[in-house]
Design a protein that fits this description.
This protein is of the alpha+beta class. It contains 8 helices and 13 strands. The chain has 2 domains: 163 residues, Alpha-D-Glucose-1,6-Bisphosphate, subunit A, domain 3 (Alpha-D-Glucose-1,6-Bisphosphate, Chain A, domain 3, 3-Layer(aba) Sandwich), CATH 3.40.120; 88 residues, Alpha-D-phosphohexomutase, C-terminal domain (TATA-Binding Protein, 2-Layer Sandwich), CATH 3.30.310.
Length: 255
């Protein structure tokens, strides 16, 4: 689909996001397809036969689980600081390497054979024996579907039953030059009523709560915004703690 040159991308952003994949869903219904894959350069978006869009964090988790269980790859997992804190590596007892944002930090340990899979929540991943750059591994995405013999949504629920559920969210907020300069200088003791158990400074500021979930904020290097990555056990819990526009978060709150 859409296999023609269009420099305007039909008037929308060139991203394989949920709200831009209705044509893919329609085609899947017409052909009774089991999986739909959208690509943009080195990013991906995936829809299953029930029409459910899977955030990159969910696909990353399923692929990691699949590679350990089906191939016995136990060399470890690399992920950026903004990627999910899902306790999958701990469940499989494999090493977890957390890196700054940027696939160059993940590509090197892949090249050295130190990790089996490297991943970023921005829809980039690669695996061992492949190039150490973020490239979409559609064959493995399809293999997960066929090896398990059930829709990805049901597989995700089974994964939740093993390691606990998680709900990630990414947003961005515009900042003034003054606020951008001061952002992440001050550390709060609490965040929306949640006590902070760990502070991570690998890239930006990541606040991890006692239940392993948390909020990561990182100033963009390409535009005057801060990107905020929030994660909780459920959507309802996420809405009560995440710094969204709905609960009045602003650049002033960052200070």
């Amino acid at each position: 689909m859409h296999d023609y040159r269009d420099v305007l991308f039909e008037g929308h952003a060139p991203e394989p996001d949920d709200h831009l994949l209705e044509d893919l869903r329609r085609k899947m219904r017409e052909t009774k397809a089991h999986i739909g894959i959208a690509t943009y350069g080195d990013r991906f978006g995936i829809v299953d036969e029930e029409g459910t869009f899977f955030q990159p964090n969910y696909i990353i988790a399923r692929l990691s689980d699949y590679l350990v269980e089906s191939r016995g790859w136990r060399k470890g997992v690399g992920k950026s600081v903004a990627t999910t804190n899902l306790a999958l590596a701990r469940y499989h007892k494999v090493e977890l390497r957390e890196t700054p944002v940027g696939f160059k930090y993940i590509g090197e340990p892949i090249k050295q054979g130190k990790i089996s899979i490297g991943e970023e929540e921005s829809a980039g991943l690669s695996i061992r024996y492949h190039v150490p750059e973020k490239m979409a591994r559609w064959r493995d995405s399809c293999a997960v579907r066929w090896w398990r013999g059930k829709p990805l949504g049901r597989q995700l629920q089974e994964l939740f039953s093993k390691v606990g559920s998680f709900c990630p969210q990414r947003e961005k907020f515009r900042l003034t030059a003054e606020v951008k300069e001061k952002f992440t200088e001050k550390l709060p003791r609490e965040f929306f009523g949640r006590k902070i158990g760990e502070v991570v400074r690998k890239d930006g500021l990541k606040l991890v709560f006692d239940d392993r979930f948390g909020v990561c904020s990182r100033v963009s290097g390409t535009e005057p915004v801060v990107r905020v990555y929030s994660e909780a056990a459920s959507a309802s819990e996420l809405s009560s703690q995440a710094p969204t526009r709905n609960n009045g978060f602003s650049s002033r709150d960052a200070l």
